[in-house]
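I hope you will forgive my troubling you with a question about protein structure. The matter concerns a single protein, recorded as an amino acid sequence and a row of backbone structure tokens. Please examine both parts with care and let me know of anything in them that strikes you as inconsistent. Thank you for your consideration; the sequence and its tokens are set out here:
***
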Amino acid sequence: MLKQCFRSSLLVAAAMMLMAAAPDEAHKTELKREPIVVTSARMKADKLGERVTFSGEVTLKKEAMTLNSDSVTVFYDAGTRAIREIEALGNVIVRKEGRTAFANRALYYSKEEKIVLTGDARIIEKDNQLGGERITLFIRDDRSIVEGGNVLFYQDKQTEKKRGR
């Protein structure tokens, strides 16, 4: 009887450890994400793997987003070795789902999944344009914030005629 109770306790303890180790719903979606793929002419690693710099026709692909620039530096968290930030410098172009963003500098924050564009930053979608000193793109939420800028929207001429203009 004592042996049977001990075995049952072990099974319950093992089941609890497996449930605790299993990823929750937030982590399941995180695990399904595609990796970040970077191609470039050159790569240089610094500080024992805490920073990797790519230069020369850099292309970075993350899920449905593509980033092109002259150079990209990937900063890793020293403890977890996970990507902390990605900095793109020079002729930055970000493409995602019919939108194209341009800037001189882009900084991607991994935890927040946001990109901050500075230096002649602008977004073009069809004929419409947004421009500003600083544009923040929230990748998860599919929204953006433009600071210190202007907006140029084009309205279809057919729509204007229907309204009697």
Summary: The two ends are 90 Å apart (CA to CA). The chain has one domain: 37-152. Confidence is low (pLDDT under 50) at residues 1-31.
